[in-house]
Amino acid sequence: xxxxxxxxxxxxxxxxxxxxxxxxxxxxxxxxxxxxxxxxxxxxxxxxxxxxxxxxxxxxxxxxxxxxxxxxxxxxxxxxxxxxxxxxxxxxxxxxxxxxxxxxxxxxxxxxxxxxxxxxxxxxxxxxxxxxxxxxxxxxxxxxxxxxxxxxxxxxxxxxxxxxxxxxxxxxxxxxxxxxxxxxxxxxxxxxxxxxxxxxxxxxxxxxxxxxxxxxxxxxxxxxxxxxxxxxxxxxxxxxxxxxxxxxxxxxxxxxxxxxxxxxxxxxxxxxxxxxxxxxxxxxxxxxxxxxxxxxxxxxxxxxxxxxxxxxxxxxxxxxxxxxxxxxxxxxxxxxxxxxxxxxxxxxxxxxxxxxxxxxxxxxxxxxx
Length: 369
Known about the structure:
3-stranded antiparallel beta sheet; single chain
């Protein structure tokens, strides 16, 4: 086969790796995680259960779940020197850049850096500390004190507490936990691919995650949930939001929160779950107006462009009603996705082959100096 005929811009549709972790079955509208439907997992289990499922291939029993919670609580606190480092960042630092800096700096505290026999321990340490780095660095950038993890709260409830400064109620903690679950793993998006490419050189996990943060910062991958919330706030009402969307379409602007490289002409199953979460949260907080705006926008985009909401479209107003600062929506995305990325890096190490693609050259030939 000619190299030209093999060329796929953006590697669209190209199979880059074999995996036992996850698969997007678009026709069945199912996100498969180690054989389970992710949406069913999000309805019946917890984010912490996904940790063992993705890392070991099986769901934990009650004792294993409790042990995992305790391990994460012990690993969560940051060293004073790391906190001081984050505090020295310029106050206009982007939260994703602060997160990237924190993850990269963590490598210096790992005495067993790069040792594969300690990989699972390293992953658990990162899963414990990244929510603290995400929230702590943001508060420091706002010139506020870092909120220490609360050992009396569950993993997800504690994360939400550190985001908002308020202990969440049971419903809020459950909905936030669901959001972490549906963000946790999604086959081979750009950030996961970036991490696997870096890992294929035998670089360490911290380096792979640092590259993945940089990838997710780009607005063609992350940031859609933040953009959606800004649009909703700008629209203010059903009519205002619809008009805003129509104006963007008239200018041929990309409307964030709609469409997906894989799902294309079908609704993201994760969006449906978050839509129901928004419905429940809006009823309790008397913000049905926000739900109505989202539903009106969903209908308009389907009629005008044949596009359906992705996860970010409904996750954004959910996070807003949970009291989370908008600037933290993308760092939360990465914090949740750390699990999936770490599982992919571990898998890459197990059966590694260096990524080294070729190019389709379109430049001149035959020139002479």
